[in-house]
């Protein structure tokens, strides 16, 4: 079997979705971990985002991480393009639809709505890049420089977050995106493992449980970030 | 008389001897020979696979949308084989003996012995194909027992043995389709056999989607089209099961043997009303663990669970202590009918008896499970809970089916069951090679008459279907085709094909042009009623005479007043059904004539005039030790040919299951 | 069990043949017994239509005991109707009540084109089996049935997968019209048995390839298939197929 056949068969396409999905899941852990540094300010009011800025600086200046960023970008691209293509292909397999639909008798709405949830996340992602990634990497718009406790100078990403999340609509959009992410993950996490061939019921149960835990914790952590700025729990 | 081609010599050497001396076709010549197989049940699919594996070019036909749907799939309980894995005294001879005795001494010894000989190979073949038979914890094959035997020789896959065996044969056949050795024709119905110079050379088939007639040539034609139980309208057969292919062959000169030998299965779900379209079997394997009873009091209206133990009449255990609930089907059915006729029936219609699992659920399975788990004094609720688990594993699908149909939970209340038409032992007359009296025309499986005499034992139909297809026809067909290697495929423009097609198309036009008032279904129901009442579980000369007259009148009415909607050249299920019912009507008449001619009771054929003082079937061996093979002579006219049955090894006696 | 009769309104898909467009027709049936099966109710309707000189409704059915897999109606938005683990032929009218409206549609999927009314063409399933859904064991060459012991647990799982009746409800229910439950049941059945070991890799690759050719969608694990399967085939078979496919695909030496 040729590699091209392997990855373009219906199972292969799903495998690509699962692998890129799991990669993005692992990225979210790093992303959430780094960003959670902002919460030091909650416990130590004099921090003023120093811990976070140091972490962000490290991520931005380390060669390995910069290379991984390219891989990550590719991961996003493949997951998005493949996801949208699959959705379109799958929809085209039933030219004449039903008068009465099966609805939720047997499947969960979020399992059936991965395409929709993914599209919401894509739109959010563009906004998110516009807010943070593009300024930090390219335009430096709205970014000021700050001296950090380790004696290095860096972009004050903490301040950028504070400014960005001062708007209510931004906070609401971010929280909504986190909710979409949660549902996307509830299905995606366990589905990825099934696609990888986990059929043993014990491991399926494990994947389900871990998946639900992950899908609640990570989006919750992310959602707390804009909310904490807006509510003045940090950065005040 | 027609030659049954049974070789001289010792019974146990006949088949070996045959195989050693029959003619062979070399592999290069096999590729030039075309074989038509009609029907894709166990017999047809296994024959298609086995013959294609050898290199023959096979064309297979089925009326369903896929060959996997043939009605063999509905067989539940199991398949017999003389493996003696249970170390309980089984052997080829015992399986042979049980089958001959179960058939009430109306089957050929040589055929049945061959069946018993190849039975073990069938299990091996099926296991190799991946048929998931039930297994013990040690990984070895498990067995259960069936009626009419005292050993455990039945292999099974829950209550879906037929399904698993058929899927095995279907897959083997689909493999040959992929290899190009089998061409499959789904949704096609055979409507005529084409004879050229007295030999079967092809068929006319109708594409049931387009309605078009097609001509197909074959050096030989195999009819594997199952039984004709639907002549009774209500039976455990599938809605599409029909006699049409066999009947067309009969009309072209093939003898029809023992048509009146029909099997009434004792454990079916009772009829609920006039709307009923079919009856559902509850596998005979349930009689391993279910006990059959009726109340001791007539017209007892209490609920089953309110009737105390001492007021229950376990009538099979009472009448037949040696075999108990596992007497053969004909015996069990008549005993149930006797109780119901005498006023002891249960349920709203009083045409039912109880099949009760509680005793074995508690005492057999419950106790064993409790013991395994180290519980020494379990209470009844614990035993019931444990027992349920095991019963679920053994028969779960049957219990679910019962509950869906009746709305009652058989784990809690006993099943209500009543006999129903299930299997037809009669069929096309075939010789030892499975060839009908028409050269090149074969019949396999339930469609032929050969192996079950007047009554088939449970779990033997699957055995016969697969024996015929996998292990008999691959040898015997070579003996005929070896002389056909020089015969070039005959173009279907040949006048015999043209005439046959014209014949079929005229008949279809005639049917469509009647444009009467009554539906096909209503005629079928009326035929079924006549057959069930007068040619069913009990028959007598007077009733049969009446039945013949009624059927003749029904036939006339049918051809004057049937209404078939739609057109010829389109999918038209009503037209398909009309053709089948027309054939059933003719068959029904022959069945009554055969039943009338056979002045004795044997197996499933019970003539009220011939019974022992305690109501058992009374054979008349001095006069009726023969196969009744009927030749059609004209409208309402048949000629009887008798094939004498010679018992060289077994001495026929009054069957005794007491 | 209490019996009752009911009057019903039926909205049924009518389509003359594969090449013409179809539409819904509305019918009334009266005095339907709760003891009837769903198909017996259709028999009553068809008898009525024929007597009125109208076209009866074509539908696939055969064994009427839930095992042949031929019946195939999409009833009120669910394949085989409202009962779980049940085929249309085993569905009984006590599932409905007087005055109900029942919408009956054919299976919908590009890979299952409508032949007439409620009848669809499912030969794509046969072709998937032809691609590898078998063990190549020529007749007569088998060893003794007990020569290879099989772990009971595995044999039971193989049986549970082999119980598939090939009705196509999984495809009908799936939002992607995926045939993965059907294909995976066959792959699992044969992969779990030692006899199936030899062709294990080529089988899964070829069957998936054929499934894709037939125009079925891919599996996105909504699990609707398992919920409607009359034989309650588990989606864990799909996971097993995926694992089989990945291993086979990665270790295949053919290019």
CATH fold name of the largest domain in chain C: Fumarate Reductase Iron-sulfur Protein, Chain B, domain 2
What is the fold named in CATH at topology level of chain A?
A: 3 helical TM bundles of succinate and fumarate reductases
Shape of chain A: elongated
User: Percent of residues of chain C in beta strands?
Assistant: 5-15%
Report the count of strand segments of chain C. Answer: 7
Bulk shape of chain C: elongated
Structural class of chain C: alpha+beta
Number of strands of chain A: 2
Interface with most residues = B-C, 86 and 81 residues
- How does the helix and strand content of chain A classify structurally? mainly alpha
Number of domains of chain A: 1
The helix-strand sequence of chain C is: EEHEEEEEHHHHHHH
Helix-strand topology string of chain A: HHHHHHHEEHHH
Instruction: Tell me the quaternary state.
Output: heterotrimer
> How many domain regions of chain C?
2
* Low-confidence residue ranges of chain A: none
- Residues in helix, % of chain C: 25-40%
Largest sheet of chain A: 2 strands, antiparallel
Taking all Cα atoms into account, the compactness measure Rg of chain C is 21 Å
CATH uppermost class of chain A: Mainly Alpha
CATH H-level superfamily title of chain A: Fumarate reductase/succinate dehydrogenase, transmembrane subunit
Q: Top keywords for this entry?
A:
heterotrimer, B: about 650 residues, alpha/beta, Flavocytochrome C3, Chain A, domain 1, Methane Monooxygenase Hydroxylase, Chain G, domain 1, 5-stranded parallel sheet, 5-stranded antiparallel sheet, 21 strands, about 15% strand, C: about 260 residues, alpha+beta, Ubiquitin-like (UB roll), Fumarate Reductase Iron-sulfur Protein, Chain B, domain 2, 5-stranded mixed sheet, two-stranded antiparallel sheet, 7 strands, elongated
């Amino acid at each position: 079997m040729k590699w091209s056949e392997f990855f373009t068969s219906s199972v292969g396409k799903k495998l690509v979705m699962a692998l890129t999905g799991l990669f993005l899941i692992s990225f979210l852990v790093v992303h959430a971990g780094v960003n959670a540094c902002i919460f030091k300010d909650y416990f130590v009011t004099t921090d003023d985002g120093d811990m976070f800025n140091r972490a962000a600086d490290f991520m931005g200046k380390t060669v390995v991480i910069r290379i991984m960023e390219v891989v990550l970008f590719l991961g996003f691209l493949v997951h998005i393009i493949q996801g949208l293509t699959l959705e379109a292909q799958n929809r085209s397999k039933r030219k004449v639809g039903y008068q009465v639909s099966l609805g939720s008798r047997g499947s969960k709405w979020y399992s059936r709505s991965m395409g929709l949830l993914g599209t919401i996340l894509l739109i959010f992602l563009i906004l998110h890049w516009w807010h943070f990634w593009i300024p930090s990497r390219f335009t430096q718009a709205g970014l000021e420089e700050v001296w950090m406790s380790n004696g290095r100078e860096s972009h004050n990403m903490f301040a950028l977050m504070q400014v960005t999340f001062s708007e209510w609509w931004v906070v609401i959009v971010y929280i909504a995106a986190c909710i979409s992410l949660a549902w996307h993950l509830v299905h995606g996490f366990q589905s990825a493992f099934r696609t990888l061939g986990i059929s043993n019921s014990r491991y399926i149960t494990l994947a389900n449980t871990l998946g639900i835990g992950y899908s609640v914790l990570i989006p919750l952590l992310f959602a707390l970030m804009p909310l904490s700025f807006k509510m003045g729990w940090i950065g005040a | 008389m027609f030659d049954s081609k049974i070789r001289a010599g010792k019974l146990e050497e006949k088949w070996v001897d045959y195989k050693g001396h029959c003619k062979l076709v070399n592999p290069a010549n096999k590729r030039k020979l075309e074989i038509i197989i009609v029907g894709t049940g166990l017999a047809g699919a296994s024959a298609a696979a086995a013959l294609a594996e050898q290199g023959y070019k096979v064309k297979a036909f089925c009326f369903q949308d896929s060959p996997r749907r043939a009605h063999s799939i509905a067989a539940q309980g199991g398949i017999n084989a003389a493996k003696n894995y249970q170390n309980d005294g089984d052997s080829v001879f015992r399986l042979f003996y049980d089958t001959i005795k179960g058939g009430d001494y109306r089957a050929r010894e040589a055929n049945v012995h061959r069946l018993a000989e190849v039975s073990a190979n069938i299990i091996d073949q099926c296991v190799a194909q991946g048929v998931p038979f039930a297994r013990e914890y040690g990984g070895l094959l498990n067995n259960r027992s069936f009626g009419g035997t005292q050993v455990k020789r039945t292999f099974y896959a829950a209550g879906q043995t037929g399904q698993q065996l058929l899927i095995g044969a279907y897959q083997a056949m689909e493999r040959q389709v992929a290899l190009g050795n089998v061409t499959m024709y789904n949704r096609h119905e055979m409507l005529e056999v084409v004879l050229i110079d007295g030999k079967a050379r092809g068929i006319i088939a109708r594409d049931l989607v387009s309605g078009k007639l097609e001509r197909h040539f074959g050096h030989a034609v195999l009819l594997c089209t199952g039984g004709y139980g639907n002549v009774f309208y209500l039976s455990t057969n599938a809605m599409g099961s029909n006699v049409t292919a066999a009947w067309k062959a009969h009309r072209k000169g093939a003898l029809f043997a023992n048509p009146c030998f029909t099997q009434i299965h004792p454990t079916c779900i009772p009829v609920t009303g006039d709307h009923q379209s079919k009856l559902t079997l509850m596998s005979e394997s349930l009689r391993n663990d279910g006990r059959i009873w009726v109340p001791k009091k007539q017209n007892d209206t209490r609920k089953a669970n309110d009737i105390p133990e001492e007021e229950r009449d376990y009538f099979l255990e009472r009448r037949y202590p040696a075999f108990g609930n596992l007497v053969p089907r004909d015996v069990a059915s008549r005993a149930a009918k006797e109780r119901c006729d005498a006023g002891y029936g249960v349920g709203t219609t009083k045409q039912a008896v109880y099949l009760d699992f509680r005793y074995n659920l508690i005492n057999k399975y419950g106790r064993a499970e409790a013991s395994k788990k180290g519980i020494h004094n379990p209470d009844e609720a614990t035993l019931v809970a444990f027992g349920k688990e095991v019963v679920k594993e053994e028969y779960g699908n049957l219990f679910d089916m019962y509950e869906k149909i009746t709305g009652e939970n058989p784990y809690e209340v006993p099943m209500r069951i009543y006999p129903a038409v299930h299997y037809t032992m009669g069929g096309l007359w075939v010789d030892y090679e499975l060839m009908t009296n028409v050269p090149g025309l074969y019949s396999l499986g339930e469609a032929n008459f050969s192996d079950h005499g007047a009554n088939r034992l449970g779990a033997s139909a699957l055995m016969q279907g697969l024996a015929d297809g996998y292990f008999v026809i691959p040898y015997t067909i070579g003996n005929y085709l070896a002389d056909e290697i020089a015969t070039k495929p005959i173009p279907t423009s040949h006048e015999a094909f043209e005439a046959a097609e014209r014949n079929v198309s005229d008949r279809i036009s005639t049917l469509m042009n009647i444009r009467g008032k009554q539906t096909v279904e209503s005629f079928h129901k009326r035929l079924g009623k006549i057959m069930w009442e007068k040619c069913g579980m009990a028959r007598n000369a007077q009733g049969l005479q009446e039945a013949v007259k009624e059927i003749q009148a029904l036939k006339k009415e049918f051809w004057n007043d049937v209404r078939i909607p739609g057109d010829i050249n389109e999918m038209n299920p009503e037209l398909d059904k009309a053709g089948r019912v027309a054939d059933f009507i003719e068959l029904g008449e022959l069945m009554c004539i055969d039943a009338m001619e056979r002045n004795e009771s044997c197996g499933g054929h019970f003539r009220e005039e011939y019974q022992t003082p305690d109501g058992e079937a009374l054979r008349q061996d001095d006069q009726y030790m023969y196969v009744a093979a009927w030749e059609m002579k004209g409208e309402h006219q048949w000629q009887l040919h008798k094939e004498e049955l010679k018992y060289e090894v077994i001495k026929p006696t009054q069957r005794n299951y007491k | 069990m209490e019996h009752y009769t009911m009057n019903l309104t039926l909205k049924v898909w009518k389509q003359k043949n594969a090449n013409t467009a179809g539409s819904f027709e509305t019918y009334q049936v009266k005095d339907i017994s709760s003891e009837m099966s769903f198909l017996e109710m259709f028999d009553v309707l068809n008898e009525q239509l024929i007597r009125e000189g109208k076209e009866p409704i074509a539908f696939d059915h055969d064994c009427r005991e839930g095992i042949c897999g031929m019946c195939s109606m999409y009833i009120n938005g669910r394949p085989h109707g409202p009962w779980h683990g049940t085929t249309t032929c085993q569905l009984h009218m006590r599932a409905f009540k007087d005055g109900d409206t029942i919408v009956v549609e054919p299976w919908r999927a590009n890979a299952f084109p409508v032949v007439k009314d409620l009848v669809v063409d499912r030969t794509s399933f046969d072709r998937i089996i032809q691609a590898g859904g078998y063990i190549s064991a020529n007749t007569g060459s088998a060893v003794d049935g007990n020569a290879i012991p099989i772990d009971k647990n595995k044999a039971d799982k193989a049986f549970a997968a082999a119980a598939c009746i090939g009705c196509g409800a999984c495809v009908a229910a799936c939002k992607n019209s995926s045939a993965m439950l059907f294909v995976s049941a066959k792959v699992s059945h044969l992969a779990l048995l030692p006899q199936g070991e030899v062709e294990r890799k080529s089988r899964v690759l070829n069957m998936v390839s054929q499934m894709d050719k037939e125009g079925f969608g891919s599996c996105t694990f909504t699990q609707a298939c398992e919920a409607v399967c009359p034989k309650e085939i588990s989606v864990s078979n799909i996971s097993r197929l995926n694992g089989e496919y990945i291993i086979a695909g990665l270790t295949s030496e053919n290019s």
